[in-house]
Amino acid sequence: MEKTLSAGVLLIGDELLSGSIKDQNLAHIAVTLEQRGIRVRETRIVPDIEQEIVDALNALRSRYDYVFTTGGIGPTHDDITSDSIAAAFSVDNVIQQDVFDIIQAHLNSKNVAFTPAAQRMAYAPEGAEMIRTERSVVPGYRIENVFVMAGVPSIMRVMLDAIVETLDIGHTILSQKIHANVSEGEIAQALETIHLAHHGVEIGSYPQERESELSDYRVIFVVRGTDQVEIESACEQIMAACEAGGYAATRQN
Amino acid sequence: MEKTLSAGVLLIGDELLSGSIKDQNLAHIAVTLEQRGIRVRETRIVPDIEQEIVDALNALRSRYDYVFTTGGIGPTHDDITSDSIAAAFSVDNVIQQDVFDIIQAHLNSKNVAFTPAAQRMAYAPEGAEMIRTERSVVPGYRIENVFVMAGVPSIMRVMLDAIVETLDIGHTILSQKIHANVSEGEIAQALETIHLAHHGVEIGSYPQERESELSDYRVIFVVRGTDQVEIESACEQIMAACEAGGYAATRQN
């Protein structure tokens, strides 16, 4: 029997915390996992500091069915993800000889030296299973319930595609959206009643800015759950509440 | 004497974890705080579940000089930030009569009923100081070292502007960027040497996708710290390392 599966996401990198670079991975991970019936329940963003990575990883891996990390598996001194994950699991960060050989051959073909600094890309925590893709000579890997992926979005996506088919399948998550020209304050009372009458679904209410890319309407309601009948009922009642108040509303995803 | 000040950020909302909506607040918060000499050291994204918010807030507020939250202060049933923050501080979530009166007058002028559901917007944890702006009749607030802000980006920004002038000023953080047409693997060894010779600065190395909005070059190096002389020295050595390898490089921000 299917159950609800949970995931934690750990985004690693100073650049995400300083605002230099905006994360482009979380939403893609969340949407991809949800198609597998796995929900992201928590995300942490930590700097390139080993103890911070260790603490966050240990908190997440004990709480959720799966953990996905991005970033810090490149060749430079600030790429400390593998050292940190090894520390979190109390194992050594060891050379993966076949990965080493593949990277070396790749660099040889480009007449680039495989320096000791770059060789760190061929290390992974003892016991890790490599996740190889055609997109990158540096693999991601799995250790227990933790999946370690690149931070560069195009590489991360290919790694995630390779990973996702190996994951257990959770209860299918369904969602419906309603866009409405109502302010949240005006509909809040009706929404609370509908919420209390539909315990198996979550109803989110998201006010939109005037220049929103997501909707021309003032609010998007998102109804989510695993029971299609209950979702349908909640949506119909939200539509009816909007219509009763004279507010334009439409179901669209 | 100025010191380095730290901040944690807590982004609250199911929609951020499901990928329905991408966060647009963290980078702005980070950049704004950094101009004040305050660095964001950790970010957590949690769902609209009270215990999750309580646990994350308590972890962050004990570790960092300041904590900034976004989201969950609207009128609907999923807006549980104030209840949760009150629980985290073990105080009651109490009505703010002046806020209540202002919202009521505002809604009266629009002929909209101020329902019990919507009245939750006028509650805040006991002891909170309101942060009023002209952008919204619903204020943000401060309680001890925690600042509670709206999730809607245009409102959050106005609230943050009102907050930032009240914060202590940390050691000025300086940063320089170098864009270079080099792969990380080729420069990693030189970068490690430069890193080891400049303990007071952080050197980040960020490979760019072909279609990157940030740079036409293959890598961006970011050198950050509080000592201009040391930053300048590190930048010069990175430029020299690129030039020695025949890689095009340019300093630009």
Summarize this, please?
Two copies of one chain form a homodimer. Chain A has helices at 14-18, 26-34, 50-63, 81-88, 97-109, 116-119, 153-164, 184-197, 228-244, and strands at 5-12, 38-46, 66-70, 93-95, 123-125, 129-133, 136-143, 146-149, 174-180, 202-207, 219-225, 249-251.
What can you tell me about this protein's structure?
Chain A has 253 residues and is α/β, with parallel strands linked by helices. The first copy, chain A, folds into 2 domains: 5-164, MoaB/Mog-like domain (Molybdenum Cofactor Biosythetic Enzyme, Chain A, 3-Layer(aba) Sandwich); 174-251, EIF_2_alpha (Alpha-Beta Plaits, 2-Layer Sandwich). Chain A has helices at 14-18, 26-34, 50-63, 81-88, 97-109, 116-119, 153-164, 184-197, 228-244; strands spanning 5-12, 38-46, 66-70, 93-95, 123-125, 129-133, 136-143, 146-149, 174-180, 202-207, 219-225, 249-251. Chain A has a 6-stranded mixed β-sheet, sandwiched between helices. In chain A, α8 (184-197) runs antiparallel to α9. The first copy, chain A, is elongated and about 70 Å long. Chain A starts with a strand and ends with a strand. The interface between A and B is large, with 69 and 69 residues. β2 of chain A pairs antiparallel with β2 of chain B, so a sheet runs across the interface.
List keywords for this structure.
six-stranded mixed sheet; Alpha-Beta Plaits; 27% strand; 253 residues; 9 helices; homodimer; Molybdenum Cofactor Biosythetic Enzyme, Chain A; alpha/beta
